Amino acid sequence: MGAIGNAEWTGVRLSDVLDAVGAPDASDLFVAFTGADEVDVEGEEASFGVSIAMDKARQPDVLIAWAMNGEPLTPEHGAPLRMVVPGYAGVRSAKWLIRIEVRDTPSDAPIQAHDYKLFPADVTSDTADWSQGLTINAMPLNAAICVPGSGESLPAGEVRIEGYAIAYDRRVSRVEVSVNGGRDWQQATFTDDPEAHWGWRRWTLDATLAKGRQHLVVRAFDETGQGQPERPDTMWNFAGYLCTAWHHVDVLVE
Amino acid sequence: MGAIGNAEWTGVRLSDVLDAVGAPDASDLFVAFTGADEVDVEGEEASFGVSIAMDKARQPDVLIAWAMNGEPLTPEHGAPLRMVVPGYAGVRSAKWLIRIEVRDTPSDAPIQAHDYKLFPADVTSDTADWSQGLTINAMPLNAAICVPGSGESLPAGEVRIEGYAIAYDRRVSRVEVSVNGGRDWQQATFTDDPEAHWGWRRWTLDATLAKGRQHLVVRAFDETGQGQPERPDTMWNFAGYLCTAWHHVDVLVE
């Protein structure tokens, strides 16, 4: 079916399967997926179950897939069949798919009902009303430094810094890297297809590092000019989800 | 044609007009709009001209409009015909429309070519390569406190704080208000239709203010969990565009 994110997927469109069985298409419906795997939820075994809204389910790049990058799926990747729900948190792309159900309500499986919910900072696990949290689906803007790794020792001079940025259904328009803890910023260069959709946008920057402990930072902007929050404490939530503050890496330059 | 943002618009879909004249539909094309108004660009008179990409132009809520909220357009609002390009910077919704053109390239009118471009912080008006700036179209996540106004004096006790948030094509999922400069946050309540698209999402919060100079702050999150950057200096650009940091209002409580 072509490239979705950073892989080539082979499968059938979920929307074609829904049409083939005459499933209704109202935008207030949900499509639920059950996997063959059992998950441990607070000490109880439960079937892996998640759901997505019908409008997302009908998008043409939501697939029931059986091959990735030209090879049949391996067991680890969900063989024989798995969902591919681009841009959404990986949890919605159910593996080892055994059941698809059109429902009036989201899946009531614990993974859908109790996990992957975003709450404000003043809510705790004791006070959370799970029906009120924001269901985490689409992913916010984020960027990370992959090379060098945190704590690495490097020789002084020019160093290649590499990483990725991602912006759900938007284009990443700009990636900036600081080698002095955020005081000054340099523009990174994208190293892959600017038209690629849903996936990581990889970038690189050759920067000169002075001797000593250096503090590298990355921040991305999407096509609307949207930037990332600076500090993780501005997005604290008790479950620890979606920390998309600027990513920091400390290195020792010798 | 129904509600778009915070108004009811009457007009014809741009896509229907493009179809009626047999315009091509390739996604690498642009649709340019010329207005009857002349604008002053660095001392020279020029026609108002802008453009949008064909994919946006073909969206069903991009209109050529002649009435707003059931009344014919007034001159100030662009009579007799204007563009309505939802979610985009207002500059793309050309007023006093006199010409629509399908082009291989964006409009070369000065407004499109030289204005509304976003540059990194290290670029100045002297060093800007206008062909390299990000064309400002879709608007990033933002929120503002409208009431009380900055510098207002208020009686101590409970105060109603009001404002709006906006998130381009996404839903605003949460608005938080601090009445102590950002140390603690309270959840605002939305006061309009959560399904409304493209427009402001209005919110309100009844908060108790202590006597003295108080520092109110608002921040919004969209449906992906995306938050706003905290400080304006993290998004500085020489033209002063798209400052979407947390909005602050100082009041004196007596």
Structure description:
Chains A, B: Residues 135-252 form the Moybdenum cofactor oxidoreductase dimerisation domain. Chains A, B: Keywords: Metal-binding, Molybdenum, Oxidoreductase. 2 copies of one chain form a homodimer. With 254 residues, chain A is mainly beta. Chain A folds into 2 domains: 2-115, Oxidoreductase, molybdopterin-binding domain (Sulfite Oxidase, Chain A, domain 2); 142-253, Immunoglobulin-like (Sandwich), CATH 2.60.40. In chain A, 6% of the residues lie in helices and 43% in strands. Chain A has 3 helices and 19 strands. The first copy, chain A, has helices at 14-20, 54-57, 110-114; strands at 2-4, 7-13, 30-41, 44-53, 63-68, 71-72, 82-84, 97-103, 117-118, 134-135, 142-147, 153-154, 157-166, 172-178, 186-187, 189-190, 201-209, 212-222, 247-253. In chain A, the strands form 5 sheets. In chain A, strands 1, 2, 5, 6 and 7 form a 5-stranded antiparallel β-sheet that branches. Chain A has a 5-stranded mixed β-sheet with strand order 12-19-18-14-15, with no helix packed on it. Chain A is globular and about 65 Å long. Chain A starts with a strand and ends with a strand. The model of chain A has no long low-confidence stretch (mean pLDDT 94). The A-B interface holds A 118, 120-122, 134, 136-141, 168, 170, 173-174, 176, 184-185, 187, 219, 221-231, 234-235, 241-242, 244 and B 118, 120-122, 134, 136-141, 168, 170, 173-174, 176, 184-187, 219, 221-231, 234-235, 241-242, 244.
